[in-house]
Amino acid sequence: MHAWPASEVPALPGQGRDLRIHDTATGGPIALDPGPVARIYVCGITPYDATHIGHAATYNAFDLVQRVWLDTKRQVHYVQNVTDVDDPLLERADRDGLDWAALAEQETALFREDMTALRMLPPRHYIGAVEAIPGIVPLVERLRDLGAAYEIDGDIYFSVESDPHFGQVSHLDAAAMRLLSAERGGDPDRPGKKNPVDPMLWMAARDGEPSWDGGSLGRGRPGWHIECVAIALDHLGMGFDVQGGGSDLVFPHHEMGASHAQALTGEFPMAKAYVHAGMVALHGEKMSKSKGNLVFVSALRRDGVDPAAIRLALLAHHYRADWEWTDQVLQDAVTRLGHWRAAVSRPDGPPAEALVEEIREALANDLDAPAALAAVDRWAVLQEESGGTDTGAPGVVSRAVDALLGVAL
């Protein structure tokens, strides 16, 4: 599966700062010190509907992570999956009388268009669950051989008790885990399970649903969590720098994925940092495909909204915060974009070197994009009120905003 084209990232003078970021597993900030190649895995979409603002906010956060690392002169090895076979996709295709594979390809193509428009840097590897199945089957077989998996009526489950570190990503108690498992695709009440929250690794073939040859597992399809584990281990290995996604993935997805990988390899941890973006609400409730309260990036673009303004609307909120999308949020972003473009369109301006360092410091401090935006606002106000004599300043600001914030002026 191919990703989307990369926008050019301008080179900036000086050196970027190493990233300090909030780690869900430890509950506090940690300083990341990747080697020459920084490794990041971000969980991708289930393509049964278009990209909404909640999706965009999540991918914007991890785009900033990439940009901070690139500014330190590192290479970035970024991997993202597409869950192109799963119950929600099959249910949507059945409801609308569509071929599930065609629906997945259609929505994945639209996602690529949205990411390109928003100037999100693409992953090096963009992998669909279906194409990963040949690598998933041996992992499930290995977990079974290790005694970390068991069978119920042809379905293969992972035993969370097989990982001594289970629970160290989310730190939830058993009751909370059971509740979230039921809400997020699990089956805690199924008879025969060793632990109610044990997740499925391999679902035996069901009538009328797609299935693949699973070797000794029989025909079927993979569970949600093992998909990401197979892709991450194949392309990044254990101990990569950042596992990322929305905060709704902390449990069960990232907790289970970590345990799968740790049981498979005997190593800990799967990732050095577990980083999660907040949820975006509309009309008082979290944007959700199941609820239908969505604002689609593609719809905003069709209505003529500049993608740079959409991006600024996302950047105006700290990535870990839960916030609400409103017409005013978008209008504020449109206004800000106009001010910034007017400021950099002049032939000269106030010196910009200190501003670049302010943006760098803000982003290095747990991706504090609102602080970075405020710094650019101050420069733009100074430009409007008194101007300056530095003929290179507007260009420096334009390149810095592009390179570090992904906003083209």
Structure, described:
This protein has 13 helices and 14 strands. The chain is an alpha/beta fold and 409 residues long. Helix 10 packs across helix 12 (369-385). The protein starts with 19 loop residues before the first strand and ends with a helix. It has a five-stranded parallel beta sheet, with helices on both faces. Helix 1 links the parallel strand 3 (37-42) and strand 4 (75-82).
Let me know the largest β-sheet. 5 strands, parallel
Counting structural domains, the number is 2
| Number of discrete helical segments | 13
Which of globular, elongated, flat, extended, rod-shaped describes the shape?
globular
Which segments are poorly predicted (pLDDT under 50) over 5 or more consecutive residues? Answer: none
| Order of H and E elements | EEEHEHHEHEEHEEHEHEEEHHEHHHH
Beta-strand content bin: 15-25%
| CATH fold title of the largest domain | Rossmann fold
Strand arrangement across the biggest beta sheet: 5-4-3-10-11
Name given to the CATH homologous superfamily of the largest domain: HUPs
CATH class of the largest domain: Alpha Beta
Distance between the termini: 31 Å
Helix content: 40-55%
Looking at the overall shape, the CATH architecture of the largest domain is 3-Layer(aba) Sandwich
Total E-strand runs: 14
Output the radius of gyration.
Answer: 22 Å
Provide the structure class. alpha/beta
**What value does the average pLDDT take?**
96
